[in-house]
Amino acid sequence: MEKIPEIVFGSSDKNESKAISKLVKEKKLKKIAPRIYTSNLLDSESSIIRRNLFFILGKLYPGAVLSYRSAFEFKPTEDGSVYLTYKYSKNVYIHDTKIRLIKGAGPEEGDNKVFGDLYVSQKARAFLENLGRDKQTGLTRRNLDIKTVEKELEKIIISGGEDELNKLRDTAGLLSEKLNFQKEFKKLNDIISAMLATHPSKILKSPAALARAFGKPYDSRRLELFENLFRFLDKQDFPYLPEKNTTEKSYRNFAFFESYFSNYIEGTRLEIEDAKEVIRTGIPLPLQINDSHDVLGTYLVVSERGNMNRTPETPDELTGLLKHRHRILLSARTEKAPGEFKNVNNRAGSTEFVDYTLVAGTLEKSFEFYRLLTDPFARAAYMHLILSEIHPFIDGNGRIARVMLNAELVRSNQSKIIIPNVYREDYILSLKQVTKKSDFKLYIDMLARARKFSADICGDDTNEMQAYLRKCNAFLEPDEGRLKL
């Protein structure tokens, strides 16, 4: 028997109408709105309609254009409204969703057909629509507020650059003549000009747009993440774990293993004895030159207590420390631009890091929350996370993030943190969960466990320290065992 679709529409055809009536009597269909039936007898009518809303709209209002704020949001507003440009103006309820039909021009070239015969305004048209007069207020507003409009324009610059924004402006100019949106185009043109710093920026409202106009654009989505991390950290108390490696020998022993494991996370595969020899002699292995340089460069940074005892007091000091330590870290890898922020974008899998044009501004804005934190571990966790998310360099970002993490702890005379091989997957997963789900608890729990483990790694004898690490399963792969405390 042929499966009945979840949504069935009433028909003027007598035979189809009879077939629908028969299915209703047999309780295989039920009516959920005028001319709308469903074969789903389990879910709520509201959820069925919301799930199929745009398909329904395309059927009921062919040639309509999803417009105004709906063209950006693709969902009903908080009061349940959806905005369509159509042949006439009228408000229609479909269950608890209010369809606000606004008389206007049908689809133009460039508007996208999305669900059946439903179209959605192209970006240029949608911006013009949202910059028009709006008598409504609060939840019933059909227009996005000006700050949100500016954020949407900022997204275009980030993804496509200034050329893409200028193309949108050109398209909007042509459409404004066709659709009688000349006043709206003037507003759009003024905003874009201000964002690109060709006109005064007094009209701009959103912090991100203002920052771009004044030459320090930043990633507003990342900044929101950092603000939420700050609030999470600021509410908690963390234990004081004193540094046990107080002698020069024990401090350097720890620094060796810190360097070894930090590079292992990034794919360096030197044998432990080979790594010891590289550090002892300062000479790279002929067959593993890059791996040798990576371990040696990291060691040169983290083994120098004077260098690691510095933390930033200003955004400029943060930039200076990052570039200085990165220059030492990758001093032998000139192709990686040591000490210079990236000039191309980078990514890891599906994660896109902060656009290279936004690195300086995002670091500066994120520093505002860093300076408000007082607990050394909270500062360390915050610094590590922002650098992991920003990825300011072409390469070496994970290592520099862990260097800056531990510098916060050195400055407060607390134990540094090592992420051993066996804990690598826990570490990476917790960072991904912050990026995808803002799961700060998993991230802090991961760091706290690594911190507790690291606090007991001490001693003047390298071999004894290595034996202790082996007892903790530190050298195992993640699928070979678990970290023992």
Describe this structure in words.
The protein has 3 domains: 51 residues, no CATH class; 68 residues, no CATH class; 261 residues, Fic-like fold. 52% of the residues lie in helices and 8% in strands. The protein has 20 helices and 11 strands. It has a 6-stranded mixed β-sheet. The chain has a 3-stranded antiparallel β-sheet with strand order 1-3-2, sandwiched between helices. A two-stranded antiparallel sheet has the order 10-11. A hairpin with a 2-residue loop joins strand 2 and strand 3. Helix 5 crosses helix 6 and helix 15 runs antiparallel to helix 16. The radius of gyration is 29 Å and the shape is elongated. The model has no long low-confidence stretch (mean pLDDT 91).
What's the arrangement of secondary structure elements?
Blueprint (H helix, E strand, L loop, with lengths): L6 E3 L4 H12 L4 E4 L2 E3 L6 H7 L1 H8 L4 E2 L3 H4 L7 E6 L3 E5 L2 E7 L8 E4 L2 E3 L2 H8 L15 H34 L2 H14 L11 H7 L6 H15 L13 H18 L6 H10 L7 H14 L2 H4 L6 H15 L17 E2 L2 E2 L6 H12 L5 H15 L6 H15 L12 H14 L2 H15 L7 H10 L14
Parallel strand pairs: 4-9, 5-7
Antiparallel strand pairs: 1-3, 2-3, 4-5, 6-7, 8-9, 10-11
